[in-house]
Amino acid sequence: MQVAILIGSDSDWPGVEQAWQLLREFGLEVAVGALSAHRTPEDCLNFVRQGEEAGVQVFLAAAGLTAHLPGAVAAHTLCPVIGLPLAVGPLGGLDALSAMAQMPGGTPVATVGIGNARNAALLAVEIIALGDSALQAKLKAYRQEQRRQVLARDLKLRAKLEARE
Q: Does the predicted model carry a pTM greater than 0.85?
């Protein structure tokens, strides 16, 4: 197991499904748990411990509102923890983003933008790729494909604009 995704509730799944899918596309083994830092703290801790024993290299924790889940995970592991703030509640995820970004010194949580599951997954891939040349090659190909798509859209736009002149 290389990545563990932890969500506070199964209702958070739509916010992380894209990350799960991208991690799988890169060929990574992914475990998923729906455990609450507040309602099931012991089970959350056991998930982290079992993940470490199974070889998890990166934890991705998604949460909304006060978003304690990523910090709770980070408090119990030396593995990198990526926080994914979810756009829920009256503040639309700003509270979750602030909670993750303002972790106390010594317990970092790498935090991506609100609802940005793809960047959370890509950050996990980059971290794991540091020690995996095959994964580095896949990541390089992914970036080259992104470049190709952007340049193709650029050419299409330029052609449209030239046709207007």
A: yes
